[in-house]
Amino acid sequence: MSTTATPGLRPATHPTVTDGGLETDLVFHAGVPLPFFAAFPLLDDEGGRALLRTYYRGYAEVALRAGVGLLLETPTWRANPDWGARLAVDAAALARTNRAAVAFLSDLGGDYAARLPAVTVSGVLGPRGDGYRTDGAVDPDEAADYHRPQLAAFAEAGADLADALTLTTAGEAVGVVRAARSVGLPVAVSFTLETDGRLPDGSLLADAVEEVDADGGPDFFLLNCAHPQHVLRALAEPGGWQARIRGLRCNASTASHAELDEAEQLDEGDLDVFAAGHDAIRSRLPWLTVLGGCCGTDVRHVARLWGVEPPG
């Protein structure tokens, strides 16, 4: 799908809009129930696909207004075997869904390809377990075997890139990168952070990035599902590792993961605080290129980051 000569890599080097908090937006704003926070079942019928089209088109409009590239990320964060089993979706059906998700966004992205500097389609995968906590160290080889089928489906469908969001351990990140390389797919890794700026397993972000890079590393790193204030705490650890971070998908809320897990109402945060936090991060990481949002954010938050009026 990429309109560039280096598929999957342009978002790491050129300004690129990506989307916001897909699941929280659908649940709290559109009133769509998402069992186990899984959005991929929406691809199964035209009504669900129509909701997704409306959602993604909002961010495409932000990219048009900002005059920058667009990174379309599939709604497949939960489309792996453990979460699929909870939804009674078997391996064959998951593979079909992951391929269909790439095809869906490739088709949608084609509507904008001639009007934007680049459109890139990324297959999204999430952690095997919960994105807000960890059950301990993860064996990279085991993680590679686990995530390879989803990555293979993305590659078969022609994705430009794979993007692993909300990872909680370096071990799982290493496994994801190994699996992506084995199927010939460029890959980005995104860690999540607690309020103290550390990964949920207690690791320093600096150490996690360096551990993954020591094994070959992804094409670039992002951070997601943490407020800008939490990201700034992670950046207190100096070093060249910071140059490897090229994207942010921050939460709107300053609350901890535990507090967000218990929340019954959406915390959309303070737009001014959200934007100011990004300004502070960008002063530390001027090479950031990919900007979007995560839990609690919608097209208003992302448009604010790009200095344009939100559509609608």
TrEMBL record:
Q: Which residues form the Hcy-binding domain?
A: 4-309
The UniProt record gives the binding positions of Zn(2+) as: C225, C294, C295
Say if the entry is tagged with keyword Transmembrane.
Answer: no
Superkingdom as given in the UniProt entry: Bacteria
What's one GO BP annotation on this UniProt entry?
A: methylation
Q: Which GO MF terms does the UniProt record name? A: methyltransferase activity
Q: Name one Pfam family in it.
A: S-methyl_trans
Q: Which residues form a coiled coil?
A: none
Keywords of the record, alphabetical order, are: Metal-binding, Methyltransferase, Transferase, Zinc
The cofactor(s) it depends on are: Zn(2+)
| Protein name as annotated | S-methylmethionine-dependent homocysteine/selenocysteine methylase
What species does this protein belong to?
Microlunatus capsulatus
Q: What does the record give as the organism's lineage?
A: Bacteria, Bacillati, Actinomycetota, Actinomycetes, Propionibacteriales
